[in-house]
Amino acid sequence: DDIGLSTQLALFPFPSFGLFSALSSISFTLPMDPAPSIGTSDSQAVAFHRTVLAPMKSTQVAALSSHTLFLNFAIQNRMALHLLLAFSHSELAIHQGYSDRPPLESYLHFQHGSRLFTQQLESFTHANHIAMMLSFLYLYMFWMRRHPFDVSRLKELSASVLVYVRAFALDELMILDVYFALITIQREINRYSQGSEAKSPGVELGIKRKLERIREEQSFLFELAANGAQQVPATPLMALVAVTIFHALQIYLARSRDSALSQLPVPCEVQRALKDLMTTAYYTVATGPVQLLERFQWALLIAGIETHDPIHRDWISASISDPAIKGIFQLIQSAKGSSGITMRAVRRLVS
């Protein structure tokens, strides 16, 4: 689960322009004059990075630190590994009492790594985004240790990271990862809803925990959605879609077995989920076109069946653009009694 995003990050197509056209300068890829060699090997530099640098830069056990994880990724990519070694040889020299000028070992790796880095920026082929972001990180760590600070290079490096992330919408890939995880959970609830109690002990609790984990680990998404109306720039559309679906799944799970949709009294967890769903759905529809997103339309359907508010119900009816889903919504509304409607009854209606 923890590395599920890596496959999406590893190969993602380049935009239809050269990144150089968007970058004012990349002087941070130019090496500085080296100090003499100190005779350290690459294996010594990696060992130093793993056993000294990683523990220094983390509050966790070194083996579990982010820098150890990054090292394990960097070893698999020549560009990132060269830049990691450029940084590590430089740090090892400082640690051993040499000057803060990078030794020859660092200089040579910096040359090789920055050449591969520049080629990657010029390329129109597929990019390994994990390797690129690690390379940005090691370049940053390298230049932050130079004395005095080269402010212009650090500014160019910072601006280049921003251009790269925006060019490939990398900040939205995590949102897509959550979206696809929610699709999987929707299928799990659907199977649970149609199964028997005897065959699925503990399933509901397991699904609840998955939803809670998403809310905890991806809390930034819910903060984006909660501040949707005030965000500048606007909250990404898929963030709003994902949060809307999340709240619909909370309702779907709570009403998937014995508890009917719209049944009174409404459980507190369903009340909260419906309130948050409606708030986010309003932002979503106002933000951009969601007519073709079937699962967002499904989330509106769940809210429309659950709500007792006629204003919300009318807005949902007007906002459901898919003719099939709108027809199902109208069919369920006409069949729903004062005691609500169970998922079993819904399936019978639409089968």
From TrEMBL:
<protein>
    <recommendedName>
        <fullName>Transcription factor domain-containing protein</fullName>
    </recommendedName>
</protein>
